[in-house]
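Posting this for the archive.
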Amino acid sequence: MRRSDVIWATAVVLAALLVAGARQLRAENTVSSPEMTARQSAARWGKVSVELPASVTVFPAGEGAVIANAQCLICHSAGMVLRQPAQTQEQWKATINKMRSAYGAPLPVEQVDALAAYLSRLISDGKGS
């Protein structure tokens, strides 16, 4: 057999395999059963239950404490926030804005600077320990 015949035969075989594989994939993607649909639906919309621990600890008095107690305690305990490493006001702003954008914290943008200033003063002073 000549080399050109081998190359031609290989190309034909590969093309046939590609066509057969494409048909198989198309057939698998169009198969739908009620059981498969139910499994997919349950996987996407499963129920989640979260029970948050009760805490009576609030943030210490200071300019910004009202904001922290009203906003941070929605999701976090005061102790959890107060045990964070010291951060600058800009670092706290970035953290707070992440809470707003990524996690949907309802903190109004007008309160971000005041809360960041409060947390940076509070935690760097060692009052939060």
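The mean pLDDT is 79. The chain is about 60% helix and 0% strand.
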